[in-house]
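ARCHIVE CARD
Drawer: 12
Card no.: 0347
Subject: one protein chain, sequence and derived structure
Cross-reference: see card 0346
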Amino acid sequence: MAAYDVTEMMVVAASKVLGDGKTVFVGTGMPLAAAALAQKTHAPNLVLVFEAGGLGPQLPRIPISVGESITFYRAIEAGGMDNVMGAAARGFVDYGFLGGAQIDAYGNLNTTVIGDYRSPKVRFPGSGGANDIGSLCWQTIAIIRHDKQRFVAKLDFLTTPGYLWGPGAREKAGLPRNTGPYRVISTLGVLGFDEETKRMKLLAVYPDVSVAQVMENTGFELLVADRVEETEPPSEEELRILREEVDPVGLLAKKK
C-alpha cells in the first residue's frame, strides 16, 4: 500500500462523494482538489461551477483560487457571478462544496471570525459566495480538520447556514425546501446528518482511526451510525493522479 498523508486521505474520500453527471459549486482549497480528482477518475461528466463564472471546465490542474483564469479552461460557458449564482437559485446545482473554520452539530459553518466579531482573535476571509452556495445548492459538502476547536457546540459567527437550529429551520428562514448539509469530510472520517433530527452523524472512519477518537475530538454530542464503516485508503493510481495531474506543484497534497 502506498504511503499517504491525511490531506490526501481527505481529498480522496471527498472525491468519492461526488457522483458522475452531477453539478458541484466548488470552493477554494481542498474542495478544488477533490472535484478535480473526481473528474479525472470516476466522474468524468462531473460539471464544475465556479464563483467567477466558469461553468463546466475541464481542469488540467487545480487553480490557486476559484477566480483563476484556468477555471474557464474548456468551459461549457464563461459567464459571470450573477449567472452561476442564478443557476444555483434556480435549482440547477446539486452540490455546494465548502471549507470552514468552525462547524456545529447542524452543519452551520463559520468562515468569518474566531472570537468577538468586533475584536476577534482571528479574522478569516468571510463568506465570499459561501452563504449563497450553502443556501441555494441542493446538498452541501464541507471539508474541515477534526478537533474540538473546529467541531464546536456554538459557532463564533454563523457565515453559512446548515440546518440552522434543527428540523424545519431552513424553511422558516426562507431557504429552499429539501436542501441542506449532506456530508462532512474531516481528518478522521466521513460524517452525514440524521434525517429526522438533522444532527451530525458519524458514518465512516479512516484506517487506524477509532470511533472513540472521533468522539473525543468533537465538541458536541455526535450521533453514530449503527454500523460505522472503514474507508478504503487511497489507491496508488488515485495518489498518482492527485500528485502528478491534479496538484503537480504541491499546493495541497504533500510532495512525495
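Annotation on reverse: Residues 106 and 163 are 5 Å apart (CA to CA). The radius of gyration is 17 Å.
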